[in-house]
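Q: A reviewer asked whether we had any structural model of the full assembly, not just the individual parts. We don't, so I'm hoping you can provide one. Inputs are below.
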Amino acid sequence: MNLMIVPILVPAIIAALCLFRPIRLSRWARRLSLGSTLVILISALLLFLSARDGTISTYELGDWPAPFGIVMVLDRLSAMMVLLTSLLALAVLGHAVMTGLDRRGWHFHPLFQFQLLGLNGAFLTGDLFNLFVFFEVLLIASYGLMLHGQGAERLHAGVKYVVVNLVGSTLFLIAVGILYGVTGTLNMADMAQRVAEASPGDQPLIRAGAQLLMAVFALKAALLPLHLWLPQTYARTSAPVAALFAILTKVGVYSILRVTILIFGEDAGAVAWAPAGWMLPASILSIAAGFIGVLAARRMRVLSAFAVIGSTGTLLVAVSVFEPAATSAALYYLPHSTLAGAMLFLVTDLIVRGRSEGEDWLRPGAPFAGMAQLSALFLLAAIAMAGLPPLSGFIGKLLILDATAANHAAPWIWGAILGGTFLAILGLARAGSTLFWKSADGEMIPGAKALQPRVFVPAWGLFALLAALTVFAGPASDYAEATVQQIYDRGAYIDAVLGTDRSGS
Amino acid sequence: MSVEFLVASAIGALTAAGIYLTLRGRTFPVVLGIAMLSYAINAFLFSMGRLVVDQPPIYDPEAAGYTDPLPQALVLTAIVISFGMSALVVVLALRAYLESGSDHVDAEPKDQAMPRDGRHKGEGDAR
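A: Here is a predicted structure for the entire assembly that you could use as a starting point for your response.
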């Protein structure tokens, strides 16, 4: 199963190629970058198809046997995340190329490819320290992408973003160090076994390591109160980059799911489900903070950033219940939340480009060309983000509500999700009416350039994916259920990684 | 005093200093704080392989015992990453200072009030 290394190796090679001066300055950077993203998409599709039947395949780098060497693991969850990443990446890259964003600095394409390398690696690795390394790769690339285009505002937000994430990485290392010191392994499957067998004396330390690790993942997922870095970062960076960053919060969610269920799951004795206690209230508060922020936002990119927090909070509510039914609802909502967040950012970018002097303040301005199409796109993105029918957000929220109905915290969860949806509708409706209806009277800006029709393609593409997720909601939720069965079946994962009959190598 | 006590208190002191400096208001102490934190983590990771005196980390036919080689490899990775990151954060802090004339972490560009004319430009026009 050596195909598994393709989504990691291809961007690494292409990124290095794009750094060469003759390529960087020619049209080849774009071609290489687009080509690499397409190759990743194709390999992600193939991986997705091969993981669909429920086999867990592994690939041992350098052929070192599993607990000693680094191992890549592909199961349904990883395959889904890699596919989602590559679809999103293609849309964002298309948008960046068509709007000329990639020409506003020298290193857009290498950074973009390194970002994909880090994302795919984080989703495919089966080793805790390797997860840290891929986190670093994707973070370092994200620092560069976040600063792409520059400007004083962006630099100041960048300093904060980098410092917060450096502290996060430090905590990650402490957590990994503690867990290694107690269990003596970094392989996730091996660690799951050792944590289950840990002596009572070691359990407080494991608990501390687990909570620290979850705090780091919660920081990436922008869980309240660790969300404060997100609005500034996403609002100050260029919108397509923010659209790509919609998957960054999901890396945190993915890691929470993977690590908690596998290592700190039901077999873990006293440390079982260690983070569940504080994660549920925190995610309920995230929904509130996110959607109140949507209502209060006065700039469009701030609005989109808070919408991402709220939507990730909704996702984390379903995750932090840690019951199979709720997790399966979360896995249906996860791609929706990513795509809807990214679409909102792309549409925001198009609106900002269309308006006079590219302002993103939420106030009436002069009418601009392409308003009709943009208002339709904004309406669709808003429907998706708020979770109204007929789009997949509605189905996702319904699944989450249904799965948490029997939970002891159900009134809180239902109240938060329904109240959050209401606030989101209010905030997005207010933004839409300010932008499109109040702007509609008045004179057109003289000499304003119309956006070329093709720049709308990536945003419509994301909408098409959302529509597909709605139309094929049945197969998608079946896939989510099968995924949940697979990730809760820890024995199969451990056997696949450590067992003797490995399908890889 | 045992080696364990010395190492543990050194890590503790470095971490405490790092946290204090990271919470300061200007970027220079923050950068120093992050450097201190990363030193503390390097020592911490190293000691997670247990403190062993005078033992080889790799195969040696005459060795009576071994020290754990893995944390040393981890520390190497962590050092490389934290070194690169410190360089980045220094450059970033300098650029932010030079562009805005303030090295406060919380220096806010004046965007709290809605400007009367659209001063906040976007990325430029579509090609």
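A: Points you may want to mention in the reply: The mean pLDDT of chain A is 88. The two ends of chain A are 7 Å apart (CA to CA).
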